[in-house]
Amino acid sequence: MEANKQLIQTINDVVATTLNRPLSDILPDKHLCYDLLADSLALLDLVLALEDKFKIEYKEEYLAETDHVRDLYRVVTKLLCQ
Q1: Structural domain boundaries, residue 7
Q2: Tens digits of per-residue pLDDT, 35-59?
Q3: Taking the complete model, does pTM exceed 0.90, yes or no?
C-alpha cells in the first residue's frame, strides 16, 4: 500500500510540474482538460514526462482513455505491472 501512495504522489508531482499547477489542485477526480486546463500539447508533454519518469510507453490507445487524474494512476500502474 505504501508503494501505491508513493506512486500516486510521484504522478501528482509530474502532473503539477508539467501543467504548472499547484500540487493541491491535483486530485483523482480532476478532469485534465476541464479542471486542470490541459490542452492537447500539454497532455502530450504530460505523457512524455510520465514515460521519462517511469520508463514506460504510454500508448495512444491509453491516452484516449485518459480524462481524469485517476486514469493516469490506473494506466501507469498497469504499464508498470507488465
Answers
A1: 2-80
A2: 999 999 999 999 999 999 999 999 9
A3: yes
